[in-house]
Each structure stands twice: as C-alpha cells, then as structure tokens.
Amino acid sequence: MGEIDETATQRMEKVINCFCKKPDAVARLICFPWAGGGSIHYARWGNVLDGSIEVYAVKLPGRESRAKEAFFQDMQQIVDEVIGVLLPELREKPFALFGHSFGAMTSFAVADALKRVHNLEPVHIFLSGASAPYSETRIKAPKRSELSDEDFLKWLMAIGGTPPELLANPEVLKLFLPALKADLHVVESYRYNKPDRPFLSCPVTCFDGKQDIPHDLQAWKDISSGDFTVRMLDGSHFYLKDAENEKIILDYITKHLETSEMDYL
C-alpha cells in the first residue's frame, strides 16, 4: 500500500501546486494557467483565501519543476492527466474551476470530461478572458502559434501583461516562448461543437478586462442551466494581475463557494 500511496502523492505533487493545505476546507478551487503560464500566481491564492477554500494550481509539462518534460500536444492529454490525478479529491468534497484565457478552455474541457465520463460537476465554474470554444469569435480568431517569433513578440507586446524586461531579454524569451506557443497550439487545435443543451447545472461566471479585445462571453451561457454572470473589470488581457481586480475576483469566489456548500449538502 505504501508504494501505491507514495506514487499517487508524487503524481499529485508533480501536477498540482498547493501552497497551503487545508484539510478542513469546505471546497477546493482548481486553477488552470494561462498560455505559457505557471502555477505560482494561483497557488499563492491559497495563502490569501480564508480557511474554507483550498487552492490547487495546475502545473503543466515544460515549465517550473516539470521543465524537462515535453509539452502536451493536445487538450486530451491535459484532461487525462488532470483528471487522472485529481479524481479521488474531486469525489471527496465540492470543487470549483477557474481558468484565464487558455486556462478557461482547459477548465471547460476538464468540466466536460468530468461530467461525461464520471458524472461529476463543479459547484461553480469561473471563466476569464476567453470566448467559448464553439463561438464564431473563437473559430475565426487568427492562429497565433504559427507566427514567426518576431511577429509573435509584436502580438505579445500589443496585448500587454508580459513584463517589458522579459520581452527585452533574449535568454529568458528562449525559455518562455516555446511554452506559450505550445499552449496556443493546443487551444487553437481544440474543437468543440456547440452543446444542444446545457450539460452542467452549476453557476457560470465570466470575468474579462474592459480594454481587452472583445470575447464572446455570452456563448458560455450554453454550457449550464445554472445562473450566468458576467463581470467586466478595468484593464486589458491580464487585468487579473492588478491587485485591486484580484481582490474583487477572490472576494467574489469566496462568497460564491461558501454559499455553494449549502446547495451541495
């Protein structure tokens, strides 16, 4: 038994970053990184949120402690790994999903598989900075992962959120660009047909930056029969890195997860 437990623990630590273990938490928040992103930004939310919410930040291959691993090539690999590691935990207590941009797509893909294959669903899904995968806006979006490095950098500078010192440092960029392009390749090749009817029943909240390029947030309404809310905050694509916006998001998540426990019971 010991060996099995150790292996499960090692797999968990490889895929999930949890800064602050909270065995008595009423709910878990599973957070998915943006394209090229790591787990630290979300993992520290565990230190900020009160004891009722435990934060699991997903770590993808090709970055952080997994830097030597090959990038995933498609969405199914992400879904299989995350669910393979987290399934026992997700059955144990209520959970919610949060993802920004590429992370919104991965959280949606995970929610879809959890419902279809395991008949499990989150108590809330928080989607940020992204159009629904089947919306026209998303389907017609240009393929950024196919750009040359030079054009790709121009695009990165245009959307904002990437520190200028990073863009000016060729060595750091060499490490950063492959992860970003790999994630964009995954999301750009991900296909999902518009649902005939909602497959979830939990509330869905969409956050977005007022100055970001417009996303088709309303299309997310099709995934669930639960309450649907849109919250627009000041800022461009990485509006959620702003301390004030982050506080608004975390207060909102806390309020909704603490009350969702009542519904779960």
UniProtKB/TrEMBL annotation:
One of its GO terms (molecular function) is fatty acyl-[ACP] hydrolase activity. InterPro entries: AB_hydrolase_fold, TEII, TesA-like, Thioesterase. Residues 30-240 form the Thioesterase TesA-like domain. It catalyses: (9Z)-octadecenoyl-[ACP] + H2O = (9Z)-octadecenoate + holo-[ACP] + H(+). Keywords: Fatty acid biosynthesis, Fatty acid metabolism, Hydrolase, Lipid biosynthesis, Lipid metabolism. Belongs to the thioesterase family. PANTHER family: S-ACYL FATTY ACID SYNTHASE THIOESTERASE, MEDIUM CHAIN (PTHR11487:SF0), THIOESTERASE (PTHR11487). This is S-acyl fatty acid synthase thioesterase, medium chain. It comes from Myripristis murdjan (pinecone soldierfish). The gene is olah.
